[in-house]
Design a protein that fits this description.
Strands 7-8-6-5-4-3-2-1-9 form a nine-stranded mixed beta sheet, sandwiched between helices. Strands 10-11-12 form a three-stranded antiparallel beta sheet. It has a three-stranded antiparallel beta sheet with strand order 13-15-14. The chain is of the alpha/beta class and 394 residues long. It has a domain of 258 residues: Aldolase class I (TIM Barrel). It contains 17 helices and 15 strands. The protein is globular, with a radius of gyration of 21 Å. Bound molecules: S-adenosylmethionine (2 copies) and iron/sulfur cluster. Keywords: 4Fe-4S, Chaperone, Cytoplasm, Heme, Iron, Iron-sulfur, Metal-binding, Oxidoreductase, S-adenosyl-L-methionine.
Length: 394
């Protein structure tokens, strides 16, 4: 087959099933934030050369079993991948390109913390192939940044954002709301300010108290006061949807807002239940090999991963997913996004019809909408997502 026809065929085959992406996890941070339960660690000694070789070895291993795929998106997450040297990032991108074709305008995102050191590396990342920055701003007032345990100030965040904006066409940032002592008016003001800065994408998360974090310890001892009650949090969510929409950023997922066409392609692969290769400590993946879809997970602790990757396999778990597993995962991911799911695909995966009594009940409650084989949650349904999923799960 002519190369271009092959590329088109491979792209469309993957695309019908949600696309194919690559996730690279860098597990280190300068300091641990008290709310964060992501796989992140503070370490003084990092032999970056060794880490690079381990990532490259994992890519080589994966390439042998994933031929003929087209990489729609790459995502460097963490931890704090903006602590990686630009040459390390460039070498990983180069190896990905060596193994798999990419479209002409690939989305290659790197998560960055908004410190000045990180901002100094932005040019290098762009030269190495990064096309999009996702910045963890978290709050637009210094008192709350401190309370969140962040080591940057609002001023530094704004400066880093400006540098990112002048270097990359696509820049998004994250904010955490429903914070201690935050009123609805405070959040409206902060969000309006964020919307003035924003280019075409924002991730807006409600603060969650995750088990095993410093915030959770403090919360259980009664030391984390002033968190919003459920009604206020729901009002904050409504206001978020309203203000973002007015600014032309549409809520395309529970916590993600974008102009049409500026959605995160990498994250859409997850939510459309596509395939993705995940490499690095604790990274997970979903890979279809010889018609079987697998859930994969890499060794979680940085040193355990590094040593295993050097010995030939950083992947710790590989489980074949049954049709029911896949249907449930597709449902859980797909109902997060505004575009929703295709019930024909769902029923084919499950080998069984969807529960029509539950559908009628949820439609009557205004939590879902259906048209033909197209099923999606309403904004109210996305707020009560766990209940919706609970009723529809196989
Ligand atoms: C859910 S947050 C989203 C951040 C930001 N708003 C964005 O979308 O660019 C991204 C984080 O999720 C985790 N993550 C994403 N994909 C992953 C994967 N395949 N395996 C393990 N962790 C992953 C990483 O900790 C990553 O930093
Ligand atoms: C892995 S972190 C981002 C990476 C980057 N190191 C940073 O902190 O800027 C992914 C995002 O998830 C959000 N997040 C993490 N923990 C959260 C929590 N407990 N509640 C709400 N959002 C949280 C934050 O907005 C954060 O930017
Ligand atoms: S929020 Fe980001 S910087 Fe803070 S510990 Fe988690 S991954 Fe590291």
């Amino acid at each position: 087959m002519h190369l271009q026809n092959w590329l088109r065929a491979a792209l469309s085959a993957d695309w019908q099933n949600g696309g194919f992406g690559i996730y690279v996890h860098w597990p280190f941070c300068q300091a641990k934030c008290p709310y964060c339960d992501f796989n992140s660690h503070v370490s003084r000694e990092i032999d970056e050369r060794r880490w690079l070789n381990a990532y490259l070895a994992e890519l080589d291993r994966a390439a042998a079993e994933l031929p003929g795929r087209v990489v729609n998106a790459v995502f460097f997450g963490g931890g704090t991948p903006s602590l990686m040297h630009p040459d390390t990032v460039a070498a990983i991108i180069e190896r990905i390109r060596k193994h798999w074709p990419m479209p002409n305008d690939p989305e290659i995102t790197l998560e960055a913390n908004p410190g000045s050191v990180e901002a100094g590396r932005f040019r290098g990342y762009a030269d190495g192939g990064v096309t999009r920055i996702s910045m963890g701003v978290q709050a637009l007032n210094d008192r709350d940044l401190k309370r969140l345990g962040r080591i940057h100030t609002v001023d530094e965040a704004k400066k880093a954002f400006e540098i990112a904006h002048s270097t990359f066409e696509r820049v998004s940032f994250d904010l955490i709301y429903a914070r201690q002592d935050q009123t609805l008016e405070d959040w409206k003001k902060e969000l309006n300010e964020a919307l003035c800065l924003a280019i075409d994408h924002l991730s807006l998360y409600q603060l969650t108290i995750e088990k095993g974090t410093a915030f959770s310890d403090r919360y259980e001892k009664g030391g984390l006061t002033g968190l919003p009650v459920e009604d206020l949090a729901a009002d904050m969510y409504d206001v978020t949807n309203e203000l973002c929409e007015r600014a032309g950023l549409f809520g395309y997922e529970v916590s993600n807002y974008a102009k049409v066409g500026a959605e995160s392609r990498h994250n859409l692969i997850y939510w459309r239940y596509g395939d993705y290769l995940g490499i690095g400590p604790g990274a997970h993946g979903r890979l279809t090999i010889d018609g079987v879809k697998y859930a994969t997970e890499h060794f979680k602790m940085p040193n355990a991963w590094l040593e295993n990757a050097e010995r030939g396999r950083g992947e710790k778990i590989r489980d074949a997913l049954s049709g029911t597993d896949q249907a449930n995962e597709y449902l859980i991911m797909g109902l997060r996004i505004t575009e929703g799911i295709d019930t024909t695909r769902l029923e084919n995966l499950a080998g069984a019809k969807i529960d029509t009594t539950a559908l009628t009940h949820l439609t009557d409650l205004g939590l879902i909408e259906q048209s033909g084989s197209h099923l999606r949650t309403t904004p109210q349904g996305r707020l009560l997502l766990n209940s919706v999923i609970g009723e529809l799960i196989y």
